[in-house]
Each structure stands twice: as structure tokens, then as C-alpha cells.
Amino acid sequence: MSFPRSFGNTRRHFGFAVAVLLGGVVGGTTLPIQPSPASATVTIAPMAAASLIAATSGQHLVENRAIGDQARLINAAMPFSGAPVFASRPFDLSNSDPLDRRRALLCLTQAVYYEAGFEPLEGRRAVAQVVINRMRHPAFPKSVCGVVYQGARDPVCQFSFVCDGSLYRRPALGAWQEAERVAAAALDGFVDRSVGAATHYHADYVAPYWAPRLAKIVQIGAHIFYRWPGAWGSTAAFTGRYIGEPSDPLSLRPPLRQAVLTDGTLVPLEDPTLAGPPIARAENDVGGLLDTSKGWTLNIPGPTESSSTSKSIADHQTKAPEPAAPVVLAAR
Predict the structure, then answer these.
(1) Beta strands 257-260 and 324-331, pairing class
(2) Integer CA distances (angstroms), 146 to 54, 67, 69, 104, 235, in order
(3) Which residue, 199, 208, 210, is CA-closest to 232?
(4) How many domains does the chain have?
(5) Range of the domain at 134
(6) How far apart are CA 170 and CA 317, in angstroms?
(7) 37 part of a folded domain
(8) Residue 154: which pLDDT band, with cuts at 50, 70 and 90?
(9) 148 lies in a domain?
(10) H-helix or E-strand containing 141?
């Protein structure tokens, strides 16, 4: 994931007071998928919650123990949780405010396309479900676009495609339309049962430091999916209330920044208005992660003035603001 990258002010808003055991992950790869259990009170100590959030946000989000084949070995050695996988409740915006639904559809389509647009259908549905799950969990924003664009003005995005320039390249039409169908279904009540209460994922060719702290659920295509540990990762913890989509997605998008290599060389900036293939990635990169196998990490300068909210949602795919401060790709 890119992953499925900063949780902002939401980290301070928890309705939890009692600690729960954050148990380890146990073995087993064949998991029963069951309907959601009845509502229950889910409690977790605020300090424990804050520790989990801190471990999966900011710079910690993009720190890896290994990449490439070594990462695959580490990921394969980490066992799956043996706990049952409970399906989340449907999320239905079919009768919501039309503007809210249009905005949510655009943001969710972007997440599905740029994170898993060329993965199997099951993988695209799983990414859409993770976004919906996050929106309902107390640790994340309470709108679809808020989840997708979380961290867009911070040094690290929760979804790297938001900050790596992908949004300024016109998508492949067929794959985009397929992603939009997946997103529309998720907003009309479709539930991907295979990932249950998953709120995190990453590609199998990276081994992030945060992964062992979460419960590993399932691998679908090149992505491995996780939920929070203990009761905080149960469907009963999804108590967050959807607030609608208060912001035009275009106003949430960070300005296009020109990349600078560590030797000071500017990476040529392509005309973002020209049609072309999706943003170039590593040969085995099907999601939104930066190609860390090349030894680069993203270092994005501080916040800049956001784009005007007066532009239409349609502008999202065809127009780009003037380039802003550079993005520095720093070798690790």
C-alpha cells in the first residue's frame, strides 16, 4: 500500500478508555470468513492506540526492513492470523447527496486505480474495502476523500500516489473505467469479505517495519492485507460516522513538484496535460508505492497554498496547477 500516511488531528479523538491485549499474530493461512458479529463495546487504552498510530504513520510508514526478494522472504515467514475474518457492514451512498457521492466516487476510483489498477479484480475490490474500513475506524478521517488524501500536505502521504505525481498523468481509460466500477459498487453497498476489517496493506516486495505490529489477514495478488491487533481491529471498532465530502478533491491534491536527485539534478518535468500511460513504476510495482528498490525515498517540502476549490471535479483528470517546490528523492 501503499498504501496503502499521517493521521493528523484524528489521533486525538478516541472514545476508548480500557486497555486490551494487543496479542501476537499466530499461524494459519486458511481463514473462515463470517458475517459481522453483533455490536460490542471495544476498548483500548489511548496510549496504546497512539503507539499503534505513531508506528504506522509519518516516516515510520515508509521505513522498510527490506525490499525485493529479501522482503518477500520476510513476508512469507510472517504467519497469518488464525482469527476468523468477519465481513464489514455495507456502506451505501446510493441515496446520499449527489455531490458527496460524486466526490467520494472520484477519490475512491483514484485509490483503486493508482493502488491496484492492474491487479486482479479481487485485489481492486480489496483496496476499495480498505478505504471504506479506514473511513469508519476512529483512527482515520471520516470521509472517503479525507482517507485517500490523508497526509497530502504532510511529509508522507498515506497513499503515495497522492504525492508522487501520479495524479497529474492521465490514466489508461479502460483500467480507469474498471476502477470506477469497483469504486461505485463499494459505495453502493458491496462488501469485499476476504479482507474483513483490514485497514492496511503493502506490496509483497517491501517489508515495512510496522507490519509485525498488525494482524496479517490475507494476500491477494501482490498485496498483503492487515488489520489493527486485538479488538481495535474488529468490525465492532468501526464506530466512525461518515460526515460527507466537505472538500472538492482538487483542493486536497498537493501541487505538482519537480523531483530533485541527491546530486542536485532536476528530473525533467513532463507536460501533465498531455495524454499518456500511467506513471512509470518498477516492473513489479502494481500499487502506489515508491520504487524503493532504487534506494530513493520521498522528501516533500512543507505545505503550500492549495488549489482553488472553484474548479470542477472534471478538472481533476485533465488540468494541473503550476509546479511548486521540488520533491527531493533522498538515497537511503
Answers:
(1) parallel
(2) 19, 29, 34, 9, 20
(3) 199
(4) 1
(5) 8-331
(6) 6
(7) yes
(8) confident
(9) yes
(10) none
How many residues in the chain? 332
> What is the chain's Cα-based Rg?
19
DSSP for 167-209, please give it: GGSPPPHHHHHHHHHHHHHHHBT---GGGTT--EEEETTEEET
Q: What tens digit of pLDDT does each residue of 155-203 get?
A: 789 998 998 889 988 899 999 999 999 999 999 999 999 999 999 999 9
Q: Is residue 3 part of a domain?
A: no
Diameter of the chain measured on Cα atoms? 57
Q: Which residues contact 182 (CB under 8 A, 6 or more apart)?
A: 109, 112, 121, 124, 125, 128
In a domain, 310, yes or no: yes
Q: What mean pLDDT value characterizes the chain?
A: 75
Q: What type of residue sits at position 320?
A: A
Single-letter code of the amino acid located at 35: P
Task: Transcribe 53-101 into DSSP letters.
Answer: HHHTSGGGGG-EEEEHHHHHHHHHHSPPP-S-EEPPPP-B-TTS-HHHH
Rounded Cα–Cα distance for residues 325 and 233 (Å) = 38
Q: Is 94 exposed, middle or buried (0-12, 13-18, 19+ CB in 10 A)?
A: exposed
- What are the pLDDT digits (tens) for 306-321? 333 233 333 333 333 3
pLDDT tens figures, 18-35: 232 233 332 233 334 444
Handedness of CA 305, 111, 202, 331 (dihedral sign): negative
Per-residue pLDDT, averaged over 297-311, amounts to 33
Q: How far is CA 309 from CA 28, 68, 122, 252, in A?
A: 49, 40, 34, 9
